[in-house]
Amino acid sequence: MSFVIAVPEFIATAATDLASLESAIAAANAAAAANTTTLLAAGADEVSAAIAALFGAHGQAYQALSTQAAAFHAQFVQALSTGGAAYAAADAAALSPLLDPINAQFVAATGRPLIGNGANGAPGTGANGADGGWLIGNGGAGGSGAAGINGGAGGNGGAAGLLGSGGAGGAGGVSTAGGFDGRTGGAGGAGGSAMLIGAGGAGGAGGSATVHGTGAGGAGGAGGNAGMLFGAAGVGGTGGASPLYSAGGAGGAGGAGGFFASGGVGGAGGLS
């Protein structure tokens, strides 16, 4: 009995590479078509005309074969992509019954699973992203803040497990009210931090203040800290803009680096 091992991520990468290769070959064939399918005779005699026609016919035959090969290539890439997606779905379906009983105990005891990515916060709610699994898992992205008289704050990104990256902070909500009464944009959520190996999440951008108000733009969220050993620190979120009378929001601080990584870049302040 033979066994087949497939890595869906590698299959998806191979499909992308093959699609890029097909595009390059098609461009080369198109560039060469004019010079290979219609040749000028070297002279006015019948022999030169016959030679030019012969080579032109070969060029036309090559272009026809290239068209057929391109169609086959496209079918192959499609089949490869479909197969990779099927493998990924099968892996997820097979893994879920095995992990669910284990994760259930950890969720009951600690509020987060052992293995698995955290759920993203819903857009427009400002909900925090869920934390990833203690062992392996990326933190969920924070939901964006709700737009309103004063923009709502974006949710914080979820923390990662021992192996995984923190979730990005949600963007602050935009202030939509008119008037001159100091309505402000919402603050961006902080990026989630990695634990041991992984990148910190980027801080969310601050929401912009209303065009006609005097309020300030929301502050950008802080970037998440990098993993203790390896991983990039999260960049701070950009401050929200304040179009007329007030200052733009402050940019968020960059996350702290680990033992072998630099701290993250702070976010730019908002325009005013």
UniProtKB/TrEMBL annotation:
Pfam families: PE, PGRS. Coiled coil: none annotated. InterPro entries: PE-PGRS_N, PGRS_rpt, PPE_sf. Residues 4-94 form the PE domain. This is PE domain-containing protein. It comes from Mycobacterium decipiens.
